[in-house]
UniProtKB/TrEMBL annotation:
Entries under Gene3D superfamilies matching the protein: 2.20.25.10
One BP annotation, GO: tRNA methylation
Family annotation (Pfam families): Trm112p
InterPro entries per UniProt: Trm112 (IPR039127), Trm112-like (IPR005651)
Designated name of the protein: Trm112p-domain-containing protein
Amino acid sequence: MRLITHNMLKCHVKNCNDPDKQFPLRFKDAQLEQIEAERNDEFLVRMLPRIEWSALATTATELGIELPKEVPKVPADDDAFMQALHTAIMEMHVKGGSMVCNGCGHEYKITKGIPNMLLAEHEI
């Protein structure tokens, strides 16, 4: 699972009612792997408005990935920023571990890079 995917996931357990704690999910025992990918600046610039930057920056820091705390005014003109963004959201893959909700503590397992976001019937 890439960090770009993680940035779009939140807890959906029915008793988890605090929207401020449902996102972002916190990684636990994350197993990371960097897989090189071709950089596409046009895609990165188009994705920036869809990314919750503070959540991505915090998650990256927790995982030991270097990412600027803020987005530059003209991201496409900052090559170092674009490379850091590309590495963080396109090349870093979480292969195992889990994601934990800060609100209710529900744990979503990650196996072979795929997060299990399915809930039991009593959690829906």
